[in-house]
DNA sequence: GGGCAATACG
DNA sequence: CGTA
DNA sequence: GCCC
């Protein structure tokens, strides 16, 4: 998720470079780059794409060493995000004006501007430990902590991990889950699910979110948001019916429901079920079997799909919350907090009263928080 | 020196 | 702790 | 690592 690049409209991730980018801008233009990602565009590729690619290695390295939530990691993520939102950098004085880019980053940027690369990035890419941790965390259920622990115990490869027999599901579908999906693949998977959804709840509506919506050409998973337009409450129960149907049709393997709020509530104590925050969205993380079509798919492929259900009245919040990127969500919450709101994918709330502001559309969220639509 | 987004749940 |  |  950290590779997600944020943007605002559905066309947010398109190349927005222009001929004027070849002209060197005054440092003041860089000081004008907004501090938070919600106030700037994030084109991809961006004008500083080669630099970003180099710095991204160091960001990954920090993620693997300290976790994505560690300050060392967040500082790199925010700095890279700022660079993504900046015009073409061709001297250090410009970079110096960017918010969130400090002395340490400037040294790296300077090196890149003079040599065209960053030595530490290259070393990191080739380091055995980096490669081992990177590979180990690719297994579903294995995060940074576990990978570091495994490494300390001498584990270095997927083969060694497999022998431990601790992640049966992770390894069962590991191979397919490494293969990224094209946008056409994402759309095809979504359409398979829509057909079944229409059988259990005609009139229900779905949209593809996540990296796909941000314009990524390839995705490692699919985020599918489902609602029932204009009829509050009619979305209730959709998830379990849909899951049962997908299971019955073999579109989800028997062991393919990795997690589901809906299914869980079956064997859950009633009081526990009602304890659930009434705003939290129903969701299921599944393995979807994408049937072969004999043309673009010679065989079935197993894909990670997240299915999320939202009430119509909070559809906008759900769209914003499940589109990302990670950085965008962080910055959005900061803005909400500062303006007396609390934002979650389940809704936008007044911090004082706890009252939920209706957010039928994505623009309702932006409007309430006074964030421009870029 | 404190803060960095946020939270439900298995 | 891991996942979203 | 960067900002307040």
Automatic annotation (TrEMBL):
Coiled-coil region(s): none
Keyword Transferase in annotation: yes
Positions of region (Disordered): 1-26
Leading EC class: transferase
Pfam family, one: DNA_pol_B_thumb
Signal sequence, start to end: none
Biological processes, Gene Ontology terms: double-strand break repair via nonhomologous end joining
Localisation per UniProt entry: Nucleus
Family from the record: Belongs to the DNA polymerase type-X family.
The protein, known as: DNA polymerase
């Amino acid at each position: 998720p950290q590779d997600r690049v944020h943007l605002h409209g559905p066309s947010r991730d398109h190349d927005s470079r222009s001929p004027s980018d070849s002209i060197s801008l005054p440092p003041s233009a860089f000081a004008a780059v907004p501090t938070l990602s919600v106030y700037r565009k994030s084109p991809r590729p961006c004008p500083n794409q080669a630099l970003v690619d180099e710095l991204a290695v160091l960001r990954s390295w920090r993620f693997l060493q300290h976790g994505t939530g560690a300050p060392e990691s967040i500082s790199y993520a925010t700095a890279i995000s700022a660079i993504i939102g900046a015009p073409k950098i061709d001297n250090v004085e410009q970079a110096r004006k960017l918010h969130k880019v400090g002395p340490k980053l400037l040294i790296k940027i300077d090196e890149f501007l003079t040599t065209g690369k960053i030595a530490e990035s290259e070393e990191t890419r080739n380091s055995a430990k980096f490669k081992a941790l990177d590979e180990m965390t690719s297994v579903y259920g294995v995060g940074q902590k576990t990978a570091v622990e495994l490494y300390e115990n001498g584990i270095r490869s997927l083969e060694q991990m497999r022998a431990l027999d601790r992640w049966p599901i992770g390894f069962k579908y590991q191979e397919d889950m490494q293969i990224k999906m094209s946008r056409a693949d994402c759309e095809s998977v979504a359409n398979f699910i829509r057909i079944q959804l229409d059988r259990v709840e005609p009139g229900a509506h779905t949209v593809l979110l996540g990296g796909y919506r941000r314009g990524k050409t390839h995705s490692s998973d699919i985020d599918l948001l489902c609602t029932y337009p204009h009829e509050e409450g009619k979305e209730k129960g959709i998830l379990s019916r849909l899951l049962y149907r997908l299971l019955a049709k073999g579109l989800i393997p028997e062991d393919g429901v990795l997690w589901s709020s809906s299914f869980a509530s079956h064997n859950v104590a009633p009081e526990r079920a009602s304890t659930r925050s009434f705003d939290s969205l129903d969701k299921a993380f599944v393995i979807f079997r994408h049937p072969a079509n004999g043309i673009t798919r010679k065989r079935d492929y197993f894909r990670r799909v997240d299915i999320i259900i939202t009430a119509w009245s909070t559809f906008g919040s759900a769209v914003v919350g499940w589109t990302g990127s990670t950085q965008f969500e962080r910055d959005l919450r900061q803005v909400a907090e500062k303006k007396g709101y609390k934002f979650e994918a389940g809704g936008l709330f007044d911090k004082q009263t706890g009252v939920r502001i209706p957010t039928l559309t994505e623009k309702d969220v932006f409007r309430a928080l006074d964030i421009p639509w870029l």
